[in-house]
From TrEMBL:
Binding site for (6R)-10-formyltetrahydrofolate: 67, 92-95, 109
Pathway assignment: Purine metabolism; IMP biosynthesis via de novo pathway; N(2)-formyl-N(1)-(5-phospho-D-ribosyl)glycinamide from N(1)-(5-phospho-D-ribosyl)glycinamide (10-formyl THF route): step 1/1
Protein name: Phosphoribosylglycinamide formyltransferase
Family: Belongs to the GART family.
Keyword Transferase: yes
Pfam families xref list: Formyl_trans_N
Entries under CDD domains matching the protein: FMT_core_GART
GO annotation terms (biological process): 'de novo' IMP biosynthetic process
Organism from which the protein derives: Methylovirgula ligni
Domain Formyl transferase N-terminal: 5-184
Keywords: Purine biosynthesis, Transferase
Length: 217
C-alpha cells in the first residue's frame, strides 16, 4: 500500500498531533506523518515528535515581515519533505488565502465545536452559556474563510448538567482523537469526495476501516 506523506502543523503541545502520529504507526494506516512543523520553536509537541523519530521543523513566524514571507519558508520545507497532505492541529496562525488555495482539498483542520456552530475561540464556554444539550468537534477541509469549508467528520457529546468548560473540553478532546485520524485516513485513501460545500464518503474501498462516528454520550 502506498502511503500519502502528511505534515502536521502545531503551535503548542500538539494533543491531536499525538493521536495522528500514534495512528500512523500502524502498518496499514494509509498516511505517513513525514513532518511535524511549528511556528514556535519551543512548542512542546516538537520534542514528542522527535522522540518518536518523526522529522520536525520550526519556522518562527516572529522573524518574518509578514504571513506571505513566513509561508514561503514553510512551503520550501513542505517541498523538501514531499508533503501531500497537511493537518492543522492547534496551529495558531491564520494562513493566507493564497496558501490555502494552493493546498485546496489537501489541507485539514479540527475544530472543537459542531460547525457551523461556534466558529472561533472559547467554543466550550459559549456552548455552556447558550445552554446547548449537544456539543462536539469537526474535521473539515480548510478554505480561506476561518472555520468554514466542507465537513469531513463530526462527533457529538452530550452536555451534562454539571459540566464546566474544562470537563466538556476533555470529553470533546477525546472524540477529536478518534475522528481526526479516521478523517485523515479517509482523505488519504481517496474516499472523501467534495461537491460544493458538502463531502461524500465512499465506503467501497476495503484498504482501511470505515470512518466511525462516535455516538452521543
Amino acid at each position: 500500500m502506498s502511503r500519502r506523506r502528511a505534515a502536521i502543523f502545531i503551535s503548542g503541545r500538539g494533543s491531536n498531533m499525538r493521536s495522528l502520529v500514534e495512528a500512523a504507526r500502524a502498518p496499514d494506516y494509509p498516511a505517513e506523518i513525514a513532518l511535524v512543523l511549528s511556528n514556535r520553536p519551543e512548542a512542546e509537541g516538537l520534542a514528542y515528535a522527535r522522540a518518536l523519530g518523526v522529522q520536525t521543523a520550526a519556522v518562527d513566524h516572529k522573524i518574518y515581515a509578514g504571513r506571505m514571507e513566513f509561508e514561503k519558508s514553510v512551503q520550501i520545507l513542505l517541498d523538501l519533505h514531499r508533503i501531500e497532505l497537511i493537518c492543522l492541529a492547534g496551529f495558531m496562525r491564520l494562513l493566507t488565502p493564497g496558501f490555502v488555495r494552493a493546498w485546496d482539498g489537501r489541507l485539514l483542520n479540527i475544530h472543537p465545536a459542531l460547525l457551523p456552530a461556534y466558529r472561533g475561540l472559547h467554543t466550550h464556554e459559549r456552548a455552556l452559556a447558550d445552554g446547548v444539550k449537544i456539543h462536539g468537534c469537526t474535521v473539515h477541509f480548510v478554505v480561506p474563510e476561518m472555520d468554514e469549508g466542507p465537513i469531513i467528520a463530526q462527533a457529538a457529546v452530550a452536555v451534562l448538567n454539571d459540566d464546566t468548560p474544562d470537563t466538556l473540553a476533555a470529553r470533546v478532546l477525546a472524540q477529536e482523537h478518534v475522528i481526526y485520524p479516521a478523517a485523515l485516513a479517509a482523505v488519504a485513501t481517496g474516499r472523501v469526495h467534495v461537491a460544493g460545500n458538502r463531502t461524500r464518503l465512499d465506503d467501497s474501498h476495503q484498504d482501511f476501516a470505515p470512518l466511525q462516528v462516535p455516538k452521543i454520550g
